[in-house]
Amino acid sequence: MITAIIRASLENRTLVLLLSALLAAVGMYSVRHTAVDALPDLSDVQVIVRTPYPGQAPRVVEDQVTYPLTTSLLSVPGATTVRGYSFYGDSFVNVLFADGTDPYWARSRVLEYLSQAAARLPDGVRPSLGPDATGVGWIYQYALVDRSGRNDLAQLRSLQDWFLKFELQAVDGVAEVATVGGMVKQYQVVVDPLRLRGYGIPLATVEQAIRAGNQEVGGSVVEMAEAEYMVRATGYVRSIEDLERIPLATSRSGTPVLLKDVAEVRIGPEMRRGIAELDGEGEVVGGIVILRDGENARDTILRVKDRLEGLRASLPAGVEIVETYDRSGLIQRAVDNLENKLIDEFVVVVLVCLVFLFHLRSGLIVVIVTPLAVLAAFVVMKLQGINANIMSLGGIAIAIGTLVDAAIVMIENVHRKLEHGPVSEEQRMQAVFEGCREVGPSLFFSLMIVALSFLPVFTLEAQEGRLFAPLAFTKTYAMVAASLLSITLVPVLIWWLVRGRIRREDENPVNRVTMAAYRPFLGLALSRPW
Question: Which of 91, 303, 375, 448 pairs with 471 at a CA distance of 20 to 30 A?
Fold first, then answer.
């Protein structure tokens, strides 16, 4: 069968070249549109459920929120593990799914079961899903710094939460922009218990009055002079004075008791659970960009940088954006490493062909076939959804050293057929066919055996499988592509490029020296084979 494929390729040379050009075009498209990242994603398919329960101790959060949610989510289809964590004022439930589960299908199933569990939660407690990201979604981080001292941490935090965060979340590929550090400005009402007792006002009345005094109230429509006027009352709090004037009750003399009579109203920071510091120079406000699951990390980082560059002009005077983490550098180094290895391989192969064969165009065959095998691997990667990372690119780098073997051996065998002198076109075609036929089957099956040598890696599971599977896949794809090209494209390229005078081996001084040095060792091995 291999001989028939070689003969058919030589008889349909134009078709083989057209199909190879099509493979190159599809491969280039796949390279440009394959997701690129630095590291393989080792995280499980999981959905995170966060439920705030402000002011409650971890034990209360565990009993009233975490336990009802975990017991309800145990029956989610495809879920393998449900883990609950209770903190002060917060509950987290992680639902882990089996490998291969679509993450968005998992999120929809969790939402269905959360709706059933909502009735078992305390009033006002609402669970929400975490971002559709993975454990390696942290791709970019920046800090807001004001070295002029015009803006404090509260103002920087407001700038991040109400301006930069919304702008960056609109960037394609971004799942979430998390804020760290700074001070969250809030109105604080410090109640004096002695005054409350003196007026006979319970604390619940104060809470209800504040809630009622900070909302809009809509009325009906009044028609005057053939025009309708909507009636509404604006009640949103805009200053400390608005809060201080909220009525709580009426004294015995009919005088209203205002909030300022029983409490001190002030502006202060929200209680913090952590801080962010930059280079030991003091506290800053930071933003963490989280990548959406399955998106291209490098392209997303570039879009985020472009958006931040456009937003710099809108920042207040003295505020600057300092980049603190950027994964694109590591990604680019991984890609550059593969490119450098390919270039080194091409240079070495061309030099070997020049030194040992004295034929430059023979080296061009390897320079053409090797990138095609790599591009074919990228086509399958794109179809399978494997992103280009250190491990997957490492598989291609491992395969590069073996990709060129078949072409070099086949070229050298054809050279031996053509080194006896000028021949006609028909004789040259027969020599090319015979040279490829003699070694073609052996080369094809040897490359296939090398390609299948990583089959045991595919039996790995969990994190080990997710770590090494990309390497095994890409190495196998490249080797399979090289074996197929060795019996289709390589004979055609030999026909087109191996022309002119072909020198005999003994005409090359390098070959004469090498054979002279090798012959004694060969004779010794043959004389005493045991």
Answer: 303
